[in-house]
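Give me structure tokens for this 352-residue protein.
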Amino acid sequence: MDTLVSAEFAPDMTYLNTSTCGLLPRRAVAAVQEMAGANATGRGGLADGGFEIVNAARASFARLAGVPADRVAVGGSVAVHIAVIAASLRPGAEVLLPEGEFSSVPTPFAIRGDLRTRYVPLDRLAEEVRPETALVAFSAVQSADGRIADLAGVRAAAAAHGARTLLDASQSAGWLPLAAGAYDYTVTAGYKYLCSPRGTSFLTVTEEAQESLVPLHAGWVAGEDPWASTYGPVGELARSARRYDESPALLAYCGAERSLALLEEIGVERIHAHDTALAARFRKGLAALGHVPVDAGDSAVVALPGLAHRHPGLQQARVAVAVRAGSLRTAFHLYNTTEDVDRALEALGPAA
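Here you go.
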């Protein structure tokens, strides 16, 4: 892992902001530059549709998520994937969500106007599932503070009441092992812990859920044979989750294919151990300095409430973090080191 990471990443600061945007590996940057150059000169790469690259990224994500590639659809935005799911619900259906969930999850349901959205504390999500709940929609890891949901508890409660589950893995896929097949739907943005360019996202759908999920934005790429689906209505939609594909941003997927391959080479379990060990070291150092982070369990994300005013000082010290919901949010990933932890602690200093 150390050899691969040192060969692929070259941060020029203490970068602890992967929950906002992950760093691109050198191999992804080189692939995008090569394809952009080919596009500039007409040497190919984009004119032929680029399906080989997109399908390689799809297959790589599928392996990381633990599902067959035919369960994976590609797109450019988590919100678009969720909007398709929201459109499939019957009027009046109840959608259960955590309070403070990142807006891309609740908004497609709320904006419909004819669904019942109910918000509960994250730690009560499983016990709040009830017989009339149609869907439980939540993130594996909360964007604001890194808290990890009770994944097994929510799945069990949803199964007991016949509710479907939608998991947003944008803040977890790439460091927290993902078993996408355990949920009716998962959505994942590629540009965070998957270290892929913006414009890449993945939707997984179980075979049963596909029966009622209408591919509202289906275009030619959603055809069983895309090149036979270029004029007039698509005659036959793909017989897999590819029917939910958006027309992909090929430059972005060219980079994603290389980034996902790197994560496969290293292994998510190894990355999980690395990231959480750094976060644990940071929490221990914070305690010694008198700071009290959000209790997020064994998360790679550490949030410090009430310290948003310390952000400019950290920036000046070249420590990249984020401010979310009034907290400083730090996020550790495969390219971070113990030296990064210690620099962040030094820049933060003792509690006032």
